[in-house]
Write a structure and sequence with these properties.
Layout: E1 3-7, H1 11-23, E2 27-31, H2 34-43, E3 48-52, E4 54-55, E5 58-59, H3 60-70, E6 75-80, H4 85-93, E7 98-101, H5 106-117, H6 137-150, E8 156-159, H7 166-175, E9 184-188, H8 194-202, E10 203-204, E11 216-217, H9 219-222, E12 227-231, H10 241-250, E13 252-253, E14 262-263, E15 267-272, H11 276-281, H12 287-293, E16 296-299, H13 310-321, E17 331-332, H14 334-342, H15 348-362, E18 367-368, H16 372-375, H17 394-408, H18 413-420, H19 424-434
Parallel strand pairs: 1-2, 1-3, 3-6, 6-7, 8-15, 8-16, 9-12, 12-15, 17-18
Antiparallel strand pairs: 4-5, 10-11, 13-14
């Protein structure tokens, strides 16, 4: 499945995408325009096409129509340097799997590519609910509630620990909803400086502020008719919360510098790894916004509360990563699976996924056993209780753990994220939150 056709009239862009995909083990074909893309696709069809939207000899829609005429199941992702709401909506209606606005990191593009090729993320019929790895009673109950919620337009508040799969569940609710043919747009509320988040959400007009050389649609407008996921909603600045509340109540946005509101038809799914009710008591989150978001509350259980799902998850990750590793025939010994089910997995499913991926690479033979636990970054046992000083707040404990992990990795954030079982983005956000000294970016 790791085959892609990259179409872009800019040579530098084509070369960069080709190099990055090849480093990840993908087979890549490139084309400089719509005509060449269709010629290459006829000779060598592939499951994924990533195409620029605007090119001298035709647009991305022409490319999509051409490849779909040959292979109807081919996934198509559009890239564009010009965010345009009607164009985005039209592209999604015509069957695009995603519509991404440049500049975009390769990690974002790779995530989108993996998502559209993985059947787990596919469009499931609404009557069948949503797909999720796990068959425990708590997961079955969650999916039944999610199936009911998906039929409605009600906003959702999804509170759960980091690494449990909040975005996956949000996307699956969207796929199972009547809005499934419209865009799913995600925005990380902790990923932008306070001064830029308002523009990112609501957009701006030309000249609204220094550097606003052209008008720009915000995420609410880009999600028109579909679903907007507000990730890490707890990190939204207090000053911006009343503006979000107004948008949710009135279903209209005011671009920065504009003189008239714009109507939006969007279903909002807000996610948080912190309990918003507790933040209200601390004065860090508005109660009226909380009640407006909390129309339908959902919660994903941590992995320690669904241990019976661990073998199923391990098998899924082995199938996912074994084809791209040198250890395609590795299986996990029963003793190792027993250790998995005894471990609390503070990083939840993400930590388990990271461990399985490392174990496939590090295993010296066809059977991965308990001896891999320390080598792959998983402790055999919990640290002695004496290492934790009584009276520390959870915030102080989190900061101390992050500092020690960064010290242990020589400041390498990517390795620290893997050891902690969280995303690189979370590590970066926490470094900024706690004001830790600058470290190496990788």
């Amino acid at each position: 499945m790791n085959q892609v056709l990259v179409v872009d009239d800019e040579m530098a862009m084509r070369a960069a995408l080709e190099a990055n995909f090849r480093r990840q083990g993908w087979s890549v074909t490139t084309a400089s325009g719509a005509r060449e893309a269709l010629e290459r696709f006829r000779l060598a069809p592939c499951p994924l096409v990533i195409t620029d939207m605007r090119m001298p000899d035709g647009d991305g829609l022409r490319v999509m129509q051409g490849v779909r005429a040959l292979e109807p199941e081919t996934a198509v992702i559009f890239l564009t340097a010009f965010a345009n709401v009607p164009e985005a909506v039209h592209a999604m209606r015509e069957g695009a799997c995603d519509y991404l606005v440049k500049p975009i990191s390769f990690e974002q593009l790779k995530e989108a590519a993996t998502r559209v090729l993985n059947p787990l993320w596919g469009k499931a019929p609404a009557e069948k609910g949503v797909d999720f790895i796990g068959s425990s009673a708590v997961i079955r109950q969650l999916l039944e509630r999610a199936r009911q919620v998906a039929r409605t337009d009600a906003d959702i508040l999804l509170e759960a620990e980091s690494g449990t799969g909040k975005e996956l569940l949000a996307r699956l609710i969207h796929r199972a909803s009547p809005r499934s043919q419209r865009p799913f747009v995600a925005v990380n509320c902790a990923g932008f400086p306070d001064t830029l988040l308002e523009s990112e959400l609501f957009g701006h007009v030309r000249g609204a502020f220094t550097g606003a050389l052209a008008s720009k649609a915000g995420k609410f407008e880009l999600a028109q008719g579909g679903t907007l996921m507000l990730d890490e909603i707890a990190e939204m600045p207090l000053g911006l919360q009343p503006k979000l509340l107004r948008v949710l109540q009135e279903r209209e946005v005011d671009r920065l510098g504009d003189t008239h509101p714009r109507r939006v038809d969007v279903r909002v799914i807000a996610t948080s790894n912190r309990t918003l009710a507790g933040l209200i008591a601390e004065g860090k989150f508005r109660s009226d916004l909380f009640f407006r978001l909390n129309v339908i509350p959902l919660s994903l259980p941590p992995l320690r509360d669904r241990r019976e799902d661990i073998p199923e998850l391990v098998n899924h990750f082995v199938r996912k990563y074994a084809p791209t590793s040198r250890s395609g025939g590795v299986r996990f010994a029963p003793e190792l699976l027993e250790r998995f089910q005894a471990y609390d997995w503070p990083g939840n499913v993400r930590e388990l996924e990271n461990f399985v991926r490392r174990a496939l690479v590090l295993s010296p033979g066809p059977v991965a056993g308990p001896e891999l636990l320390p080598e792959a970054g998983l402790r055999r046992d919990a640290p002695p209780s004496g290492e934790v000083e009584p009276g520390l707040t959870l915030r102080e404990l989190e900061r101390t753990l992050l500092e020690k992990t960064l010290e242990a990795t020589g400041g390498n954030r990517t390795r620290a994220a893997g050891m902690l079982g969280v995303s690189l983005r979370t590590v970066r956000n926490k470094i900024r939150e706690y004001g830790l000294p600058p470290r190496r970016a990788a």
